[in-house]
Write a structure and sequence with these properties.
There is one protein chain. This protein has about 290 residues and is α/β, with parallel strands linked by helices. It has 2 domains: about 170 residues, Rossmann fold, CATH 3.40.50; about 90 residues, Pantoate-beta-alanine ligase, C-terminal domain (Pantoate--beta-alanine Ligase, Chain: A,domain 2), CATH 3.30.1300. Helix content is about 35%, strand content about 20%. The chain has 10 helices and 9 strands. Strands 1-4-3-2-5-6 form a 6-stranded parallel beta sheet, sandwiched between helices. The radius of gyration is 19 Å and the shape is globular. The termini are far apart. The structure holds pantoate (PAF). Pantoate binds next to strand 2 and helix 6. The site of pantoate has 10 residues, from strand 2 and helix 6.
């Protein structure tokens, strides 16, 4: 496994690999790798002959007062894991190597970045889209892999790729969960023991909402209100930022009968200062 810090070296390697007939896969990460990332790497391994991962805690996707400084950085452990998973190349740039002093260009996927998580994190998705486009330019892979836990991010990246004619296939893999159902996330480690125990309510409530819809409930306003109550019964969870029912393709708010058959049920909550998100996608009859 080779670790590359320099952008132009990275691009050259990708070009050489591609002209040698390889299929190149990219798994972009912010490091602190967990089983969710490993699932993406394994998926990439199956479909590609050479695998890149990038490890970069991207400052432009953190807002003022967010956890950029305390975000876990565990490069040594990550490199060991990547190597044992058969990753071929790790792109590990310094912040100054990714963003020059006078960086002024940002990618905004209009509308999609301002709803759901974008309400409390108004510059987050612009930072994500910008760094992901930069990564696609530095590592022009055939395929790139993203987790479905960050569902809004996935929809935004797919839209950017389509709108800007980027020649890369986006593939996603299902959310990996702890044994009690909590979605794996690098931020779970911020939780106190009590918060960690109660955090399972998010997935439980998403599944409850799915059951209600499957058994014919169409009053989404009522479902949302009850879901919020269920979550807030847990004393260590302080706020429900949203509990939304949306079209799984467009992220538009759903009303029955939905336009598409796939509906996203997504939630964001705060436990203390830790923000947790989760979602499930369900098939609904028209
Ligand atoms: O999902 C993440 O880890 C990040 O948002 C990403 C896609 C690597 C961009 O920094």
């Amino acid at each position: 496994m080779k670790v590359i810090k320099n952008k132009s070296e990275c691009r050259k390697i990708v070009e050489t690999l591609k002209s040698g007939g390889n299929t190149v896969g990219l798994v972009p990460t912010m490091g602190s790798l967990h089983e969710g990332h490993i699932a993406l790497i394994r998926m990439a391994r199956k479909e590609c002959s050479r695998i890149f991962i990038s490890i970069f805690v991207n400052p432009s996707q953190f807002g003022p007062g967010e956890d950029y400084v305390k975000y876990p950085r565990e490069t040594k452990k990550d490199l060991g894991l990547a190597e044992s998973e058969g990753v071929d190349f790790v792109f590990l740039p310094p912040v100054s190597g990714m963003y020059g002093n006078n960086h002024r260009t940002f990618v905004e996927v209009e509308g999609l970045g301002k709803i759901m998580c974008g309400v409390s994190r108004p510059t987050h998705f612009r930072g994500v889209a910008t760094v992901v486009l930069k990564l696609f330019n530095i590592i022009p892979a055939h395929r790139a892999y993203f987790g479905e836990k960050d569902y809004q991010q996935l929809v935004i990246i797919k839209k950017m790729v389509k709108d800007l004619d980027i020649d890369i296939k986006i593939t996603s893999s299902p959310t990996i969960r702890e044994s009690d159902g909590l979605a794996m996330s690098s931020r779970n480690r911020y939780l106190t023991q009590e918060q960690r125990k109660e955090a399972v309510i998010i997935y439980k409530t998403l599944k409850w909402a799915r059951r209600e819809i499957k058994s014919g409930e169409k009053d989404l306003k009522k479902l949302r209100a009850v879901a919020e109550l269920k979550i807030l019964e847990n004393r260590n969870i302080g706020t429900v930022e949203y509990f939304d029912f949306r079209d799984a393709y467009t992220l538009e708010e759903v009303s029955f009968p939905p336009v598409h058959r796939k509906m996203l049920i997504a939630a964001a909550v705060r436990a203390g200062t830790t923000r947790l998100i989760d979602n499930i996608v369900i098939n609904v009859k028209k």
